[in-house]
């Protein structure tokens, strides 16, 4: 295994390049998709696989303690530290845009929530791509193949459990190791407001309220580096891992027959550029920000943008970096009385010591918390035929992520529009691979999204107003009960909303007749001339044509599972 160190040397742009050995497959990005891809492809000992990661190893202790996401987001050791452009829909605000920069990628810093989305999401994918392989019945086996559900093979008394879940795979799914009285009361209030109770959000219809299941193992975060790289890949002589190695561009060559072929990548290893080549395929798994950036730097993207930065246009693909979709969470805060919340429990040194001791002794309590514990899916209004909003409910509150907890007991009921119609962009600022791209989500830029924002705050008020919560005397602190009109609520949503870290769609799959489709239905990159770039696929959340109705990490694993099957089949093996 070859591991390199990260550097910020200013001579990168002018350094000469050396040549590394040729591999059969190069996987760019050791995050959610890349870790699984490397695992599946290196299972064939006759194929040499290189996995390239720009970040470092996942040996930072806070990665593995669930509450440690607070120390990982905004930390250059584990986060790319992206920021959005000033967003008109957020009244000119900029947001942090966390993306994992370490082995495991965003699975090392995310909320750990196991969520597949709704069956209708995948029926839409099948329609948009013209490929039935993306229908719910056809993606379900890819979800269960790597799943290791804590309920085992039968699921106890859960009806039809085995049809929807797997056991014995690499991706551990467990119930949370804590509960809160105030969250139990919120769940009861949601039922009183017409949201049914559910014990399983992952059977194709996630309508209901209940505690989220999480990707943890015995109270520790379970990231994709643990699941798919360690120890399996590291013990394979045909597998090589580079960390601290950033791809500056792909190598794309014109073949004698006129077609384009991706033959490898140019990599900055901290000291020099290294040219590495792939005999079979390059799998770009750098995520919804990194993948379009690398494509654009390589001459694959909108011709006007590339020309603006002096990059030779190899494939004019207008959709590269377009179609950015994300879930915007509106963080409604309610002061309460008569129940402990983390605001109170963590307000003193003694309280923090108790929390630490509980985790040390039993791997439970607040340090084992996912960022959100209770979830609910429902409709923002009766006009919607399916659940179109998701709640993440937390026994804590703060002014903004990264700031101190409030001094008063409170809960946060964050609600997001699952199917936003607003679309944003990811565009390079220059030909320098070290410069972060411009990220413009364009939140709340459509009338439909602003209406859902206003309606979802009313749903929150309706739930909080139910008898189950009355004994806690909830008082609306954000946005404030004085705001009642659609216009007021949409504007206030822009003031208090933040990303829930689900960017997708920036190199989307689509049918042959879709001018914005970057990929075909098997995630192969188009060439802008009605064919494909040989030997290049994008396998990550950027390939999603539509955002899923829920957290996006596990759907990305499913996509990688299917892509690995296709890559292996194309190599003449099943």
**Poorly predicted regions:** 1-14
- The portion of residues assigned to helices is 25-40%
Largest sheet: 9 strands, mixed
**Total beta strands:** 27
Portion of residues in beta strands equals 15-25%
What is the count of distinct domains?
Answer: 2
The first-level CATH class of the largest domain is given as Alpha Beta
Based on secondary structure, the structural category is: alpha/beta
Describe the structure.
This is Alcohol dehydrogenase [acceptor]. It is an enzyme of class 1 (oxidoreductase). This protein is an alpha/beta fold and 574 residues long. It has two domains: 1-119 and 215-325 and 424-441 and 503-574, FAD/NAD(P)-binding domain; 177-211 and 328-417 and 442-502, Cholesterol Oxidase, domain 2 (2-Layer Sandwich), CATH 3.30.410.40. 25% of the residues lie in helices and 21% in strands. It has 15 helices and 27 strands. Strands 1, 2, 3, 12, 13, 14, 15, 26 and 27 form a nine-stranded mixed sheet that branches. Strands 8, 18, 19, 20, 21, 24 and 25 form a seven-stranded antiparallel sheet that branches. A three-stranded mixed sheet has the order 6-7-9. The longest helix is centred in the last third of the chain and has 18 residues, at 447-464. The protein is globular, with a radius of gyration of 23 Å. Mean pLDDT is 93; it is low at 1-14.
